Amino acid sequence: MNLFIFYVGGNAGKSNIEVHDIQFVAAEKPQDAWPALREAWFGDADKIHVDGYARITWADGHRISLSAEPATGSKKLFFVNAGAYHPSTLAELHAFDLFVAENVKEAKAKGLANLLPGADHQHKDNLKDVDDCLLLEKVGDLYIHLTPDANGEPFRPEWQGYQPIGS
């Protein structure tokens, strides 16, 4: 079983532009996650699509695995989505990543130190403790485990494009 991060998009009600979301799903292969992604989507059911996904195996000095047993360590996996502004664009800029920390304060500090360096009015949006804010303490029947490993690589898009998955 693999832990995937999905970047999904679509329309939502009276939105004038496409909106996006991040979802985490445990699945053997990406296509097995389509039902969970449709269920979590807040927008128009027929407009949801996948813009990209990645398999998460390592983050911030830790190997990530899934297990039937609960994790016991003090370190947790956090999803941090930072936002900022730049004078050349009206749109808010966003960047996100996964960080391992013992608490929200530490995760926020790591996120702000690493995401959107040099951007104006940097602020935090949607700080998420992946274990409980996104209900990933238990993903399906599996728990997220962290093992120190200095030699891993951050997730990179495994696929990007436009894959409609609407009902």
Automatic annotation (TrEMBL):
Protein name, as recorded: DUF1543 domain-containing protein
All copies of domain DUF1543, residue ranges: 15-66, 90-133
Phylogenetic lineage: Bacteria, Pseudomonadati, Pseudomonadota, Gammaproteobacteria, Enterobacterales
Pfam families in alphabetical order: DUF1543 (PF07566)
InterPro entries: DUF1543 (IPR011440)
Domain of life: Bacteria
